[in-house]
Amino acid sequence: MKAQPTASHYINGSFVDDDRGAALPIIYPATGETIATVRAATENVVELAIEAAREAQPAWARLKPVERGRILRRAADILRARNDELARVETLDTGKAIQETLVADPASAADALEYFGGAVGSYNGDYVDFGGSFAYTRREPLGVCAGIGAWNYPIQGAGWKSAPALAMGNAMVFKPSENTPLSALALAEIYTEAGLPNGLFNVVQGYGDVGAALAQHPAVAKVSLTGSVPTGRKVLGLAGSLMKHATMELGGKSPLIIFDDADIENAVGGAMLANFYSTGQVCSNGTRVFVQDGLHDRFLDRLVERTKAIRIGDPLDPDTQMGPLINKAQHEKVLSYIDIGRNEGAQLRHGGGVPSLQGFEGGFFVEPTVFAEVTDNMRIAREEIFGPVMSVLRFEHEDEVIGRANDTEFGLSAGVFTRDLPRAHRVIADLQAGSCWINHYNLAPVEIPFGGFKQSGIGRENSLAALEHYSQLKSVYVETGDVVSPY
Ligand code: NAD
């Protein structure tokens, strides 16, 4: 299996390499084999990318928003036309099951390009009337923006960051995760094919040090990171010290609350979506599943029954529902949390082991895992595991569960399953989380803002809120009378 890209970086409309950069092996998580090698960006490559972006941005910003939008919408069409090929690249890079990447990854990036390409033409400033004299506000681009991606949704992340940035008239230098460098390069080529002028979307590869170089570069006006909370603290520190704009999409340990009266099949399906999609590597996952006493035992029985039926294996087989974790380190981390859960006294109801899969012995697979009788202070209920490990906790009363759900440093997401609509809205209003669901989980359509409260981040991706975060406001006062001056 090979997936070698033309070159490591994409700068000013062309592939670029610099052999002095450290080799970065790209490993297929299902087998452990190396399918490509790219080079980390050297200082020189970072400078080239930023310079290309800086050169290209002013002319791009002067285009009419609808003209910029047209190019983005053309790129969305190309993404959709190449969906299957891009889904395969994403599966090779991430190990996620092809049945997911075919519907979720390039498609979500295309949605972002289409949405922002259309929305930006109507995203305007305000007019303020002073009875003759007046003022207006302009939404202006920031300049060169840096995007730093995580490995769980590589092309989606590149699309979610670049689309609002470019639509608003900015240029972007994007650094994918070192684990998943491939699909951002494909997106860069697609932008060029769609007519995006050279230099507006550049891709540089590398580890955290390349991300840090972008975050602290004086020519970069904004940094948008998707990653863990510890990385977010570092990047926000760098950006803050230079007064840069920042969007931080970070981790979580989100609560999913299931009341007695919930439809059991929907609640079980929602909890599984909230824990097992993308092999549990989703930032917004509802990994603390609180189930009310009256439904608890029936819920668990049905959950275990349905979890047993999950098909795990070859990610390229369209029947496979769960692929491996991203890499060896994540595999070890998830297995160690399963041990921690056992040692803490949680009841292992399903999974917990490494499945034996012929032909995939070198892969980073772990069984979908369900722990019951989890209590609030266990580490598996407090720390982000980022794998298919669900913790089920019992609760009795509404007030009690709200307090327990909010007792976390994170605040990315939350969900509620109930047929009692007043209760659903009351509970959601009290939960400290930025992205919430009632009677579903983990849907993230581009039309609604996505992002976290508390340690889970600042700023928002998607929706018009993202255009706000990729722009700055200028106020212009216009005098129509004489200047009244005391001098
Ligand atoms: P990570 O924090 O290890 O890395 C994220 C990115 O930051 C990578 O590109 C990495 O190279 C870069 N990076 C690392 N150190 C850096 C530094 N000092 N300066 C600049 N850049 C640096 O995260 P990950 O392991 O790739 O992804 C998993 C994490 O991301 C989880 O915590 C998950 O919850 C979170 N996540 C959040 C969202 C969201 O939208 N809120 C979405 C997906 C993933």
Write the layout of secondary structure elements.
Elements: E1 9-11, E2 14-16, E3 23-27, E4 34-39, H1 43-62, H2 65-81, H3 83-94, H4 98-119, E5 127-130, E6 133-141, E7 144-148, H5 154-167, E8 171-175, H6 182-194, E9 201-203, H7 208-215, E10 220-226, H8 229-241, E11 245-249, E12 255-258, H9 264-276, E13 288-292, H10 293-308, H11 328-344, E14 347-350, E15 369-372, E16 389-395, H12 398-406, E17 413-417, H13 421-430, E18 435-438, E19 457-458, H14 463-469, E20 471-478
Parallel strand pairs: 7-8, 7-10, 8-9, 10-11, 12-13, 12-17, 13-16, 15-16, 17-18
Antiparallel strand pairs: 1-2, 3-4, 5-6, 6-20, 11-19, 14-15
Helix pairs in contact: 2-4, 2-6, 3-4, 4-5, 5-6, 9-10
The structure holds nicotinamide-adenine-dinucleotide (NAD).
